[in-house]
Amino acid sequence: MNTAILWFRRDLRLADNPALHLALREAERLIPVFIWSPEEEGEWAPGGASRWWLHHSLADLAGELAKRGCPLVIRRGDSLAELRRLARETGAGGVFWNRLYEPAAIARDTRIKEALREDGLEAQSANSALLIEPWQIRTGGGDPYRVFTPYWKAAQALLPAGRLEPVPAALVPAAEPPQSLPLEALELLPRIAWAAAFPGRWQPGAGGARQRLERFAEDVVLDYSARRDQPAQDATSGLSPHLHFGDIGPRQVLMRMQRALAEDRGSGRIATTDHFLREIGWREFAHHLLFHFPRTPTEPLYDKFAAFPWRKPKDYAADLAAWQRGRTGVPIVDAGMRELWTTGIMHNRVRMIVASFLTKNLLIPWQEGAKWFWDTLVDADLANNTLGWQWTAGCGADAAPYFRVFNPVLQSQKFDPQGEYLRRWLPELAALPTDRLHMPGAQRPAIVDLAETRQRALDAYARIKGA
Fold it and tell me: Which residues make up the annotated site Electron transfer via tryptophanyl radical (predicted)?
């Protein structure tokens, strides 16, 4: 084979990219292509924050490819039609890509692989997004796991070893450059300025991912287990959007952490690194669940929760809008929602608090929260988003006790004791004494009474307890 097409999707890097090396083993010339086809994502086309990230990550990838003499081809339209067209235009003998695991992507990719092979083209896919494929692990009874701890115990025996695939120093492009759209033609950037603060927080692309990983491995990980739940602290890796878009791969993260351990075993890194790698494990577990239970982005994992007595949309519309805009009158909830709107991210501890408030105190279906996060998070990932919301709502994997209701005041006092996070995102409350700062109604009346709505939620869960 003289020429191969490398189809980029959410693997926007050259380092440790299995599909890239598959293509280079089969062909001399390479045609890297990105096809913008959001319609093929079903009801989970990328949201606004994700599109912002995608634009900049593609720009970074295009620059890296250009340095190696192989420009990125950008197309818009039906993926199969564009791949066929590109193969005809260039005489390519095969198409190579890295796998995705969302239900719509699996169906689309299966159809494309079959069609390309019927055309006489080679079509191969590889794994760049996960440490372990979702189908590699089963319980002793042959079923998918639904509980994290036994899943992760089994998964650790299968973690990959060996070296990472290097970044090619140079690439040989097609003899005649195919037509390509400019990146701006995809219109990924928001038309309003709500994402204006994103560049101050994020550097999408492989370069930004490497910097974050190095900083984390050399410094932040030392205090990770002690500080990771404190939203005012910069104490997490910040790698989640990079992992979602494939700016960096989980093998790169795993092996950098293993190297950190080998370099300094006497510093306490073992415990903190293990704690961080469990979070990578949760990401793997989320994809395991989505693969085996593809209906869960919209339906509860456990059927009995389909009868849960959620409020009706006409009754909760005003409360949902207040939650989305950070106007509930509960300081930690409002601070988290404003952080999300301003930066495209929310600290994980605060995500649990605001999700509990929405589903338990407001009795608003978790699907409403999942949709809002999908549009506003730069790390919006269908597997992670689904797992997180179902866990908090009590209807998904590992959600025991399923009736848990986070007390936002106690959570705020425990994890932001000096009110640094609250003052950062609620400057109108900055002058209040700390003991009042955490309390509902500190600046505006709370939209619900926490005690009353907690009891209402417990009563609602009691109704389905025996179902």
Answer: 310, 366, 389
pLDDT at 400: 77
Residue with tokens 């390509």: 180
Instruction: Say which residue the tokens 């079903």 belong to.
Output: 42
Does 72 count as an annotated binding residue? no
The ranges of the chain annotated as CATH 1.25.40.80 are: 130-163+206-292
**CA pair distance 116, 104, nearest whole angstrom:** 18
Q: Provide the pLDDT for residue 268.
A: 56
Compute the mean pLDDT over every residue in the chain, rounded to the nearest whole number: 94
Q: Which CATH number fits domain 3-126: 3.30.700.20, 3.40.50.620, 3.50.50.60, 2.40.30.30?
A: 3.40.50.620
Q: Is 240 annotated as a binding residue?
A: yes
Active site residue 366: yes
On whether the pTM is more than 0.85, the answer is yes
User: In degrees rounded to 5, what are phi and psi of residue 325?
Assistant: -95, 5
The predicted model gives 287-301 an average pLDDT of 97
Active-site residue (options: 40, 282, 299, 407):
282
Beta-bridge partners for 35: 75
Q: How confident is the model over 242-282, as pLDDT tens digits? A: 999 999 999 999 999 888 887 766 555 666 788 899 999 99
Domain 303-464 classification at class level = mainly alpha
